[in-house]
Structure formats: C-alpha cells, structure tokens
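Now for a concrete sample entry.
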Amino acid sequence: MRGALLDRDGVLLLLDEEALYKKALELSAHGAGLEKSLAVLARVMGRLFQAVRHLEVRTLGEEEGLWRDLVREASRELRVPEAHLLPWRYYRFMKKAPQAEALLQGLKAQGLRIGVLSNTLPSLEESLAYHGLAPYVDGFFSSCALGVAKPDPQAFLLALEG
C-alpha cells in the first residue's frame, strides 16, 4: 500500500495570530481590557499545549472536560459568559497553510492514502474538518489518543498500523 503520512501543525494548519487577537479584542469589550484578554487566551492555549506535551488527555470526552474547565476559569477571570468562549476550540485559532489543500488533492490524485500524525489533542479529525481538510485524509492519529508522541518511533509504527 502506498501512502503519505503528514503532520498537521506547520504542514496543513498554522497558528492564526490574527484570529487570536480578534477574539481578545472582542473579549476586552467586556471590561477586562485587551492586555488581560490576550494574557488569558495565551494561558489557555499554553495549558492545552501542556496537556498535549504530557499526553494528559486521551479521549474526546477528556478533552471536552479539560476545555470546559479552562473556559470556566477564563470566563470568571474575564467576566464574560462561558457561552462566549465555549465554542472557540483551539483550532479556531489556526488557519489552513498555503497550498495545504492543493498538497492533499495532489497526493489523492496519485492514488495515495493519506494519514495525519500530529502531537495534538484527540480532536485532530475535528480540527481538520473545521478547516475543510478532513475529507482528504484516510487516517487521523493524535499523540494524545495514541499515548505516545513524535519523535518516538512507536508513534509512527502505530499510525502505519492504523
């Protein structure tokens, strides 16, 4: 079987600093100020990265619980309703990398199966679907769901077996 195994971060999706800034600006209108709103959003993102780094979140349910806890904390600190933050998952602060869709289309046109192996939360498929890239992918492998992160060879072996 022929295929390609890609990373999400830096290959298919990139951090969208403008989206992060716009959300902070929107939240700042509730009285906390722009600087504090940016700091709180940065702390939330940092906590998510920590959860990935330490493989703390293994399932979508656990990820949902972590997100709700972080939203509760942030909404209290910024004095905004939780509803203003709950739908804003981390991948809404990402954007499609230039030529990402063209890359995936080209690989598919060659008859290749495509897998994405990324050091990320279990919502890898959801993150790519949000940006319209999931239909091109045959297998989604997040380090948190696998229980092992790149560059450990076991992560690649598990993805190739999947």
The mean pLDDT is 95. The first strand starts at residue 3 and ends at 6. The beta strands are 3-6, 13-15, 94-96, 113-118, 139-142.
